[in-house]
Amino acid sequence: xxxxxxxxxxxxxxxxxxxxxxxxxxxxxxxxxxxxxxxxxxxxxxxxxxxxxxxxxxxxxxxxxxxxxxxxxxxxxxxxxxxxxxxxxxxxxxxxxxxxxxxxxxxxxxxxxxxxxxxxxxxxxxxxxxxxxxxxxxxxxxxxxxxxxxxxxxxxxxxxxxxxxxxxxxxxxxxxxxxxxxxxxxxxxxxxxxxxxxxxxxxxxxxxxxxxxxxxxxxxxxxxxxxxxxxxxxxxxxxxxxxxxxxxxxxxxxxxxxxxxxxxxxxxxxxxxxxxxxxxxxxxxxxxxxxxxxxxxxxxxxxxxxxxxxxxxxxxxxxxxxxxxxxxxxxxxxxxxxxxxxxxxxxxxxxxxxxxxxxxxxxxxxxxxxxxxxxxxxxxxxxxxxxxxxxxxxxxxxxxxxxxxxxxxxxxxxxxxxxxxxxxxxxxxxxxxxxxxxxxxxxxxxxxxxxxxxxxxxxxxxxxxxxxxxxxxxxxxxxxxxxxxxxxxxxxxxxxxxxxxxxxxxxxxxxxxxxxxxxxxxxxxxxxxxxxxxxxxxxxxxxxxxxxxxxxxxxxxxxxxxxxxxxxxxxxxxxxxxxxxxxxxxxxxxxxxxxxxxxxxxxxxxxxxxxxxxxxxxxxxxxxxxxxxxxxxxx
Length: 635
What we know:
Layout: H1 3-16, H2 22-29, H3 33-43, E1 50-53, E2 56-59, H4 77-90, E3 95-96, H5 97-104, H6 108-122, E4 128-132, E5 135-139, H7 142-156, H8 164-170, H9 176-189, H10 196-214, H11 231-247, H12 253-266, H13 268-273, H14 286-303, H15 310-328, H16 338-344, H17 346-363, H18 369-390, E6 393-398, H19 405-417, E7 421-427, E8 441-444, E9 455-457, H20 464-493, E10 499-501, H21 508-521, H22 529-539, E11 548-549, E12 557-574, E13 577-588, H23 592-606, H24 609-615, H25 621-634
Parallel strand pairs: 6-7, 6-8, 8-9, 10-12, 11-13
Antiparallel strand pairs: 1-2, 3-5, 4-5, 12-13
């Protein structure tokens, strides 16, 4: 591409100073839309100077250079697939495959293979990507698309997202272990309970505050309207004093109040009683609450992500209020993980960029990329928390609130079951209980008529028998939850069209050829897959001595992981053995880690003779999956 064309192209975009479609650009420069895409690719080869999305192309000016998202090639197939799915969710009218190819810097054939893998995952959400000519469209209900987007974002986080180690990496100049001791010992002194996730979140906020104070960027305004003495206020004063003694960093009154607010949302006492959306106006001007609600509505409309969680909104509102204060006073703080965070969590970063751009326009402020990364911390923490809750049973407690009875009961239950249960609601009256999908069961000291969900009656001063009742119910609920999780995993790798019954052939080689062809026709494997499976079979028979054969290749070169299953009512010959169940497993190397979650239990289930007898009675695909899910959960 000649430099004169580059200059003309850039000058035109600069003059327009807005999004311009590929068709408009092609018409102006008398070239094809594909040539326009090549122009953009060439210009962006070193540094991203032109942003692209469903609205077209726009020159990234100096003012918005750091806040316009640019999709970059993802370094793993799973990340790339997630990016493709995200684009299809956001662009409800569909996307041209060539535009998508240019946008994420991969070939159209790579995208086509990604779509094959994606459709296997999408079964869980009753969604499917269809191609109409050159256009890719995500078909399915909007509610399922929202679930899918949430799933994709959640995948980016990990249990170590806000671990003590991670916070220490961010701020090497502070002794986080010592800081953690100061916080936890003080909270213990005031009988305030806090779990590991929430303490790490407090540490992150606290060390950011310390870093700002150290850089002479303290909060000077204090909007709290009701600052009565409380356990949290006293704890905040003590923590601030100890930080001053230990680190030489002095908290002013506004900073101590801010610390009190942080504690009030993350420790047990206020988590249930004080700092809620209803009481937030005591600490923050109503303008900021309405501003955050508008921002989250825009995120929901644009990305199908629902961030309307009370705890998240409270913390995010505090953050946005202080962010605007810093922006208007140009008191920025350096974020040590800005660029690595952007690369590691691309979708979370993109949503943060979107929020930042909206915030700049609504409040007439200028944002820097370090502040965008802090927004990402909040969003990432929300999804980490969401992932943590998925592994626990969620509970509501109903108990009168007099003479400390309610708090005493909550503290004892949390202390006993903190690793496997999370208390989401505490109320004094059963009528105040919010029945929603977030509650698995209720613990109550009051009688409940016709409970909608599993309920346990306990004594106000909880007994050993009460604990045993709770434990028994939780075991049953966990078993039910685990079966559903196993079933979801199985359906990722099983295909109803590859579930076959009463197929009678002459030999193991015939079955291998037949099943390999089925996998090939469904685009799971290459055409020569049969040869590699037969090579493995000749080394030693893959038949167990309990009526099962599991033929497979020594290579993990399948396009995507999947299984072809044959169940016969009568046994058939497989070398020296006789079998009734044959499962041919094809494994994709990049999906090996995901498949490994179910593979061991899968094989163990098939190794039990009693399980084989039960599985061979399955008359259709759904019966088979249901029975297999149940049996795998018993292993």
